[in-house]
Amino acid sequence: MKSEPAEASVDDVARMPNKTVPWFGVRNYQARNFMRDQMRVGDGVLFYHSSCPEPGIAGLAEVASTAYPDATQFDSQSKYFDAAATREAPRWFNVDVKLVKKTRLLSLDEMRAAPTLATMRVLQRGNRLSITPVSALEWRAVKRLLG
Description:
It is built from 4 helices and 7 strands, in the order βαβαβββββαα. It is an alpha+beta fold and 147 residues long. It has one domain (2-146): ph1033 like domains (ph1033 like fold). A 5-stranded mixed β-sheet has the order 1-3-4-7-2. A two-stranded antiparallel ribbon has the order 5-6. A hairpin with a 6-residue loop joins strand 3 and strand 4. The protein is globular, with a radius of gyration of 15 Å.
């Protein structure tokens, strides 16, 4: 799961009382569907910093709630407001994510250099999705790289 550190960094989440943050603001249907339809409480999450000087995995987290409507879609003052969304038929969802541990930064370059991660979706050229599935093999490879 990608987050821009200026919006929500690993350090920001670590300072929260229960180290949990709603993963709001996803406005891509495919990423929404991954979150809404495939994520389950307890699933592991690679907390990835993007749109920053050095992108990469900055922590390990887990899904802490089932999907529920993203409240920002209804807030006309929010940059995530969606005039087409209604409370009866929400378009956007989020899950709560709980930080398990901050890690050293596993850089994008280091990930790309690992042969076991060659097919990882987040590393594919042109991938702009903020949420992508990770296979069990990729999860284990990332954990090995992190030490």
